[in-house]
Design goal:
This protein is about 20% helix and about 25% strand. The protein has about 675 residues and is an alpha+beta fold. A hairpin with a 2-residue loop joins strand 31 and strand 32. Helix 7 packs antiparallel against helix 8. GO terms for molecular function: metal ion binding; protein serine/threonine phosphatase activity.
Length: about 675
């Protein structure tokens, strides 16, 4: 087989030095640094708390920071079940950490002298109590820990350790594919098929297989015994699993070196917990080390996961046991023993019920970080330092379609895509606006420079998505409402068109409606329709549409002149049903896709967000829906998916809602623990 070629950027020297405990300079843009290249601490005049992480810069320095990448708390979702033999996930089970509190994971129960915060008694692979330690990084962890954490993807400020070999982090994803390798030729001199690889995760090249590194896949554990730079090969010893005791040598020329259950894999491991093509070892050259002095470019062997079911994990021992190497970002996965966790900004649950309608036209969406491409969740190869604003941005939405599901289905992909693209294009302006806001004395004010810019971005994205949907000549006549939330640091933006709502439950059950329905019953909305030459009949626009703002609905966007043609002139010239007169813009759309946007800074005590379509709010007042949801969240100790289902059943079975009912509950903190 010809030598495979990896199609990604070369590994920097800092990545290799980092894995070997070196002290290369940090990546540019990660944090403010002093003249010695070290993270600069906060100024002495700045008020900081004991758990602050000023070494990482302003965006991690304080829990009071509004535009922050540091999470005050994280939600750990279990990715494995208590009964490992069943192998069933427990997606509804979650554990919440808290700022300033260390979380221990092990098998010590409540009666133990040192009980663990998360006790998994059935996991006999754990070495004992405190097999894994989760904490929020702070200045007392030292300078090197900050350097390691800032290099490790887009950290959220939290870190995991497993000094006894119990803890491991899931490595970055990649894809191996067959293509024509121009550098490889067969016996006939013709190009032959080779294999190439491309990484799908940010900083996938962070997981260097240096000497002393150890990784796990399925039931197997592998240890890197030697790295021979001159011969471009590594020696790997299997210490556990079906291939226990075997020594494997991997040469750069054979990379990508695929392992898994498939017989055609380079390393076939008969383990039912492995996927057919489970993971791979890549060889990534570093052209900066070559300098043209020899024909063999130096490089590093990298461990990647081929989007397997159970994952490939780098164990946090040896060179990866250094504090800060286990830094966690949103979406990261780690294991302690055989218990798996995913890192989340919040917990959420969705219920989508067709109700009495013949078809389901609603769509619901949650994206915890816009750093990755919303279409497929992969890294788009942008420079890391350009992603800081996207890394602290979350997006969620409920789309209530009507006249078909084409529009709501389109919005699931298009709206977050446009939002990410616009924020990325405006990243410098956003960064400057955030810094300007930080310079102000009050960061919790209703509006600041950053929120004003985000409003413009949101408005332009809504209008662009709508225009793209209705512009084609064969565009469907369907439409959709939208109720969306964007979390930018701690600042919340709630935007809507139509009659789907966003409602916030604050501390103690206080209900705050963040959106207002766009219906003909609103005087300002009815006036806008009439100013465009339209009329309201039976509480509907032109006697047809029950909402005054929406995506799609192409016929209502072309203006009354185009809709009614000759009748429009007669309508404009005399007194119609709405008292039509001069000054009407007959080309203005009767139904608009321009959103109304509310902005506020979330408190650390806010409890949850409720997003739902009119199928719920036609039969529930916002306060009643919040009260019932809060009551059930307390009774179920969380479980937002189950609570959303209960709300939906109440709306359909008890209160006789006739519409599709879509509900999204986003839990911001575990308030039931104090109830």
């Amino acid at each position: 087989m010809a030598a495979a070629r990896t199609t990604m950027a070369a590994v920097s020297e800092s990545t290799w030095n980092n894995a070997n405990g070196g002290s290369a300079a940090p990546a540019e843009g990660s944090a403010p640094y002093n003249n010695n290249g070290k993270p600069a601490a906060a100024s002495t005049g700045e008020r900081m708390d004991v758990d602050s992480w000023s070494r990482a810069g302003r965006q991690f320095a304080s829990a009071r920071e509004v535009y922050t990448r540091a999470l005050y708390r994280i939600c750990l979702k279990f990715t494995t079940s208590e009964d490992e033999d069943e192998g069933k996930p427990e997606p509804a089970t979650a554990y919440w950490t808290l700022y300033g509190r260390t979380t221990s994971i092990g098998n010590a129960g409540p009666t133990s002298p040192t009980p663990d915060s998360i006790c998994r008694r059935m996991d006999d692979s754990m070495s004992g109590p405190a097999a894994g330690i989760l904490w929020r990084l702070n200045d007392s962890d030292g300078e090197q820990a900050a350097l390691h954490a800032l290099r490790a993807g887009m950290t959220s400020g939290w870190c995991i350790r497993g000094d006894r070999g119990d803890g491991a982090l899931r490595v970055g994803k990649a894809k191996v594919f067959t293509s024509s390798n121009k550098n490889a030729t067969g016996a006939d001199g013709q190009p032959q098929q080779g294999r190439e690889a491309t990484t799908l995760s940010l900083d996938a090249d962070r997981w260097v297989l240096c000497k002393g590194a150890s990784f796990a896949a399925g039931n197997s554990v592998f240890n890197v015994e030697d790295f021979n730079e001159a011969k471009q090969k590594i020696s790997i010893h299997c210490s556990k699993g079906p291939m226990r005791g075997k020594l494997i040598e991997v040469h750069a020329a054979r990379c990508p070196y695929v392992f898994g259950r498939a017989h055609e894999a380079d390393l076939c491991i008969m383990d039912r917990e492995l996927s057919r093509r489970h993971g791979a070892i890549l060889y990534m050259t570093n052209s900066r080390n070559n300098n043209g002095k020899n024909s063999r470019a130096k490089g590093n062997f990298i461990l990647v996961d081929l989007e397997s079911t159970n994952g490939s994990y780098m164990r946090l021992v040896g060179p990866y046991g250094v504090k800060g190497m286990g830094a966690l970002g949103l979406g990261d996965e780690f294991i302690v023993g055989r218990t798996g966790f995913s890192v989340n900004r919040f917990d959420y649950g969705i219920s989508e019920a067709i109700g009495a309608r013949p078809t389901m036209e609603d769509r619901t969406l949650v994206i915890q970080s816009l750093m990755l491409d919303p279409a497929h969740g992969y890294y788009k190869n942008e420079p890391k330092e350009q992603l800081h604003e996207l890394a602290m941005t979350s997006f969620a939405a409920v789309f209530d379609g009507h006249g078909g599901d084409e529009c709501s289905t389109y919005l699931v992909d298009a709206l977050p895509h446009h939002l990410r693209s616009a924020m990325f294009a405006e990243r410098e302006a956003l960064r400057n606006a955030v810094e300007q806001s930080r310079m102000q004395q009050r960061q919790d004010q209703t509006e600041d420079a950053a929120s004003e810019l985000m409003r413009k971005i949101l408005k332009s994205c809504y209008l662009r998505a709508d225009k793209e949907f209705i512009t084609p000549k064969n565009a469907p006549q369907s439409g959709s409402t939208a109720a969306t939330v964007i979390l930018f640091g701690r600042r919340l933006f709630a935007a809507n068109v139509g009659d789907s709502r966003v409602v916030l439950c604050r501390s103690g059950g206080q209900c705050v409606e963040l959106t207002s329905d766009h219906k003909p019953s609103r005087p300002d909305e009815a006036a806008r329709v009439r100013a465009a030459g339209g009329f309201i009949l039976h509480k509907r626009v032109m006697g047809e549409l029950a909402i005054t703002r929406a995506f799609g609905d192409k016929s209502f966007k072309m203006g009354i002149k185009a809709m009614l043609e000759d009748e429009a002139e007669e309508l404009a010239g005399g007194a119609g049903a709405n008292g039509a007169g001069d000054g009407k813009d007959l080309n203005a759309p009767l139904v608009s896709a321009e959103p109304e946007i509310a902005s506020m800074v979330l408190s650390h005590n806010d409890e949850f967000l409720l997003l739902a379509c009119d199928g719920l709010f036609d039969v529930f007042r916002s306060q009643d829906a919040i009260a019932l949801a809060r009551q059930e969240l307390i009774a179920h100790r969380g479980e937002p998916a189950e609570v959303a289902r209960i709300l939906s059943d109440q709306a359909i079975r008890v209160r006789r809602s006739r519409d599709n009912v879509s509900i999204l509950i986003i839990v911001l903190r575990p308030f039931w623990e104090l109830a």
